Amino acid sequence: MMEWFVEEEWRFILNRFSMSKTLHLSEYPVVTLIGAGGKTSTMYELAHQMGSENKKVLITTTTKIYYVPDDKEHFFSDELYENLFYKLQKHVYPGHFLVAGIGVKSGKVLGIKPEWVDRLAESRLFDLILVEGDGSAQKPLKAPTNLEPVIPSSTSLILPVMGLDVVGQPLHDQVVHRVEKLKEVTKLQNGEKIKFHDIYRVFIDPSGYDILKLKEKYRVVPIINKVDDKDLEYIGGQLAKLFTQAGIDQVLLTSHLKTPILRRVYQ
After folding, report:
1. For residue 127, how many other CB atoms are within 10 A of its CB?
2. How far is Cα 144 from Cα 136, in angstroms, rounded to an integer?
3. Total Cβ atoms within 10 A of residue 225
4. How far apart are CA 99 and CA 68, in angstroms?
5. Phi, psi of 94 (to 5 degrees)
């Protein structure tokens, strides 16, 4: 096993580029983010990074994502695929990203069908399509139901995202989405403190995300997010080692506390 450390002085120089280059995003035209604890922030950061490389990028969802009013000039919606495609085709150009859905309700972008993602990928209108394929109600941890996540078949890279700020928190619906399902997967009880290996179980267990099974079909790179200080970096490292020991090839530790930063890569 090898650990690659990002030197301290590089962290602010390369923070806008490290994630996209480390993930080799230019080789993966459709990327789906799952999990909780920073999916949307990660998705937007990757869109900005790829835009800086003069790529044409689309952000969308097969569930729901929070609508960012500042991005209204980037946002296009329609309930018919042909109409949506026409709008996107009119406004796409290199170095910028667009956001697509079928509409907005209660402050959330309503997702498109996964088949629409596949058709958009086939059209090659965009160099990269970033898909949020899992809802988490803005909680740092969730356990999926049997119908989640919703992954388009054109996906080639899956980024499972998890937030370390849940570690040490008592199990409660304020910090966990789908508490009963998480209790089933981890065997935790209400009020028990969540540990990093509980996060590991959620993503590895066959009744959770089962990312080892996903790895049979897709490239899978877990992103351990909210690694906001040295103590959390140590905990994130222990969690990353569990993933690599289980057979995951690469794990990223990230933080969005101030400036987006790639803290460490395990592989």
Report:
1. 18
2. 9
3. 26
4. 10
5. -60, 145
CA terminus-to-terminus distance, the chain? 6
| Range 177-203 burial, b when 16+ CB lie within 10 A, else e | bbbebbbebbebeeeeebbbebbbbbb
Residue range 157-182, pLDDT digits in tens: 999 999 999 999 999 988 898 899 99
DSSP 29: S
CA-to-CA dists, residue 22 to 2, 49, 160, 190, angstroms: 15, 12, 16, 38
Q: What is the pTM of this model?
A: 0.92
* DSSP string covering 104-119: EETTEEEPPPHHHHHH
Distances (CA, A) of 117 to 67, 113, 181, 225: 19, 7, 28, 26
CA torsion 61-67-69-74 (nearest 10°) is 10
Beta carbons of 197 and 203 less than 8 angstroms apart: no
Determine contact, residues 42/223, Cβ cutoff 8 Å.
Answer: yes
Alpha-carbon distance of 138 to 185, in angstroms, equals: 20
